[in-house]
Amino acid sequence: MNAWLQRMLAQDAPSLPLAWAMQLDLSLGWALVLALLGSTLAWRLPLPQRRLVALVLAVWALLPGPLSPDYWLGLAFHAPSLTAMLLCAGLVQRLLFPAGLRRSWPRDGASAAARLPAGSLGLLAVGVLLGYALLLDTFALLPLSLYAWGFSPLALLLLLALFLLPWVAGAARERPHALSHWLAPLALLLFAATRLPTGNVWDALLDPWLWLLMHGLLLRQLWRRWQVGR
Q1: CA dihedral for 194, 198, 199, 205, sign (positive or negative)
Q2: What pLDDT score does 114 carry?
Q3: Residue 210, C-beta contacts closer than 8 angstroms, at least 6 positions apart
Q4: Which of 13, 55, 73, 81 has the most Cβ atoms closer than 10 angstroms to its Cβ?
Q5: What is the pLDDT of residues 145-191, one digit of tens each?
Q6: What is the pLDDT of residue 106?
Q7: Other C-beta atoms within 10 Å of 11: how many?
Q8: To the nearest 10°, the Cα dihedral for 127, 193, 78, 14?
């Protein structure tokens, strides 16, 4: 039992992704981010033109060498997390290929956001607090190395169990098409299969830009719930 627990907590021999897979993940990640950014900024254009803008930006990011934006974005920010990549892919699909999604995309966005299940709201809060904990760990202000623990198999299992709680509790089954329900579990499963982007589970789950976005989403949800409850 002790030997099994030691293997589950081991951090000294992490399983790392292959070099070519890391480069592919870097290019694909920023391609998705730029495609979402382009389709969002071009929202006034007709749908075919928005698709063209997103495609051009995505192909540009996939080009090799310093002429591609992913080269410089990778130097500054490394690769987006798997969660961010899945979020961008889901939003790009909803923005550029909306057919068949009208039933699951409420007209009243404000009321739909206010009805976000408490479990999903709680997991969003957990993600924000986790980012602060990792930030404190960066400055060595915690009694343990939280980031290094992300290389252990036990961290992956515990996080997967945590983010599957909405499905176990039944909250996720009420809105099975909501991005918030399947993003983290799917990102963790992809990490288990590929070890991308760095072999550390925290990098697969969070990145600085996604963490900042989660602050905005959490504050927005809390504000709307307060308005509804007044």
Answers
A1: negative
A2: 43
A3: 80, 81, 83, 84, 87
A4: 81
A5: 899 999 988 899 999 988 887 777 665 555 656 666 788 899 999 99
A6: 41
A7: 15
A8: 90
Query: How big is the chain, counted in residues?
Result: 230
Query: Per residue in 71-81, pLDDT tens?
Result: 999 999 999 99
Residue position matching structure tokens 């030691």: 6
DSSP per position, the chain: -HHHHHHHH--SS-----HHHHHHHHHHHHHHHHHHHHHHHTTTS-HHHHHHHHHHHHHHHHS-STTSHHHHHHHHH-PPPHHHHHHHHHHHHHHH--TT-TTTS-S-HHHHHHT--HHHHHHHHHHHHHHHHHHHHHTT-SSS-HHHHTTSHHHHHHHHHHHTHHHHHTHHHHSTT-HHHHHHHHHHHHHHHH-TTTS-HHHHH--HHHHHHHHHHHHHHHHHHHHHH-
- Who's near 162: CB < 8 A, 6+ residues apart? 123, 126
CB 207 within 8 A of CB 213: no
